[in-house]
Amino acid sequence: MRTSLFPLSTLKETPTEAEIISHQLMLRAGMIRRLASGLYTWTPLGLRVLRKVEAVVREEMDAIGALEMLMPAIQPAELWQESGRWQKYGPELLRVKDRHSREFCVGPTHEEVITDYTRRELKSYRQLPLCYYQVQTKFRDEIRPRFGVMRAREFIMKDAYSFHADVESLKATYQAMFDAYCRIFTRLGLKFRAVEADTGSIGGNGSHEFHVLADSGEDAIAYATHGDYAANVEMAPTYPASQPRPAPSAPMTRIATPEAKTIEEVAHFLNLPAHRVLKTLLVRGRSAPAVAVVLRGDHELNDIKAAKHPLIADPFELIPPAEALALTGANVGSIGPLGLNIPVIVDFAAADCADFVCGANEEGWHLTQVNWDRDVPLGETADLRNAIAGDPAPNGMGTLAIARGIEVGHVFQLGTTYSAALHCEFLDEQGKPATAIMGCYGIGVSRIVAAAIEQNHDANGIVWPVPLAPFAIAIVPINGHRAPAVQAEAERLEAELTRLGFSVLLDDRGLRPGVAFADMELIGIPLRIVISERGLAAGEYETRLRWESENQNIAASNLLAWVQSQLVE
RNA sequence: CGGAGUGUAGCGCAGCUUGGUAGCGCACCUGGUUUGGGACCAGGUGGUCGUAGGUUCAAAUCCUAUCACUCCGACCA
Question: Hey, is A85 helix, strand or coil?
Answer without folding.
Answer: helix
